[in-house]
Design brief:
Blueprint: E1 2-6, H1 10-21, E2 25-30, H2 33-42, E3 46-49, H3 55-60, E4 68-71, H4 76-89, E5 94-98, H5 102-119, E6 131-133, H6 135-148, E7 155-157, E8 163-169, H7 181-185, E9 192-199, E10 202-204, E11 217-223, H8 227-233, E12 244-247, H9 251-262, H10 268-273, E13 285-289, H11 292-301, E14 306-309, H12 315-320, E15 328-331, H13 336-348, E16 353-358, H14 361-369, E17 374-377, H15 378-390, E18 395-401, E19 406-412, H16 424-427, E20 433-439, E21 460-466, H17 470-478
Parallel strand pairs: 1-2, 1-4, 2-3, 4-5, 5-6, 12-13, 12-15, 13-14, 15-16, 16-17
Antiparallel strand pairs: 7-8, 8-11, 9-10, 9-11, 18-19, 19-21, 20-21
Helix pairs in contact: 1-15, 6-9, 6-15
Amino acid sequence: MKIIIIGGGFTGVQLAKRLINEKNDVILIDNDEETVRHASNRLDCSVIQADGNNLEVLEDAGIAKCDALICVTESDEVNMITCSLADAVYPNILKIARVRNYSYYINTSVAVTKHAETFGGEHRPLYGIDFMIHPDVEAGNAIVEAVRSGAVSDVLTFDNSDFELIRLRVEKDSKVDGKNLIEIRNLTDKPFLIAYVESEGIASLPSGATVLHQGDSIGLLTKKENATSIFSLFGFNIKEIKKIALVGAGRIGTIVAEQIVQHKKTTLISRLFGNKGSLKTSQDLLIADRDEALCKAAAQRFPEASVFCADVMDEGFIQEEKLNTYDLVICATHNHEMNMVLAAYLESMGVGKTISLVASSAYADIARRLGINVPIPLRDSVIDSIMSHLRGKTVTGIHTITNGEHEVISYVLPPASLLTGKLLRDVADPGSFLVLLLQKAGTKEFVIPSGDTAFSAGDTLILVTKTSETQRILDVFNGAK
């Protein structure tokens, strides 16, 4: 693919790196001299110093032959205008814009929905933007998924599936310590699968002969209803969550609080609360922020919660409100360093579980070393969302794991796929990819496939791949090579 990225900040450079590693032709454009110099030293691609919202610049960069335009500058307006400008002349190019203004994001979503309801059928995307991505929405949703799964660790859920992929650590004296995966498989009749193993800093896709040891981190795929019994094999027990403290009443905190309060149905959070997910008293959810305006808005919006306007780093407040007695503390302010420090401190004070918003996967690794249960890397969630849209119509979702070394992909098998009519054991490529789940075309249930599972057009696959191999594997699956 040929892709133009407008904006050479952290997100633009990291996105370019991933695309370059997959052998894509990338052009990065930014108007700041220092930014361009920095990007040029780090990237093996064309880096241009110019205004990306100039049609002549885009045409000189070869937009006519591009597959996608991605705008991730610090200015929402520049990102949106650039997409609109490109759409006016090159409507067939995929256009993605990152925006931080929540009003832009939500109003665009509402307008698109109303247009579809009023006129129906196909229509040009609003502002020419095929996909608009908001960092806070992506991060907020990731935090909510972690809460729903008990804040055990990093959690991936899949649309229309009761399976989830959870990162666990093999604990001391667990039943699986020193056993290979074939032996572990015989310890329970509950369906599960080990998607990846991280041992001594090295991540890999396992085989039946892979042996687990104390301290290894694994990706455990299992049904939500079986999570408690499967976790016990690895020496890990889920504790009931009754009291949640949410630090940060900004946009991300509001998204999280809204989901906790409103989504009270048949997810794992219902069982964790033990009361069908409802919050019985104001003591079940505490929201704290030092910003008075944010606290006032939170108190009006969430009467179910206790809202405090306070400095959460003040030890006096921590002791007065007994934050160390809470089952879960979520640190979701935009001060990522403070999130990590506070979460690590409260973890050392006896808090049941901690979730912390951090800047990137590099900080997420540090956070885990500090004892934080679930670090949520803000920037990586944006890049994952962009990558999922770039994979094409056959890819409906993507998420990076193991510090970016592997990806979990939701993939719909096209009619021309080379997998159609073949068995899983005949197409397996150990070490490169692993099929975790399969939903047969026309059915609603996901299952863990076996070597005898046959593929058909329209099947949905959840697979984990080595990031460096992802595009090659998808090309093979799609029949392109």
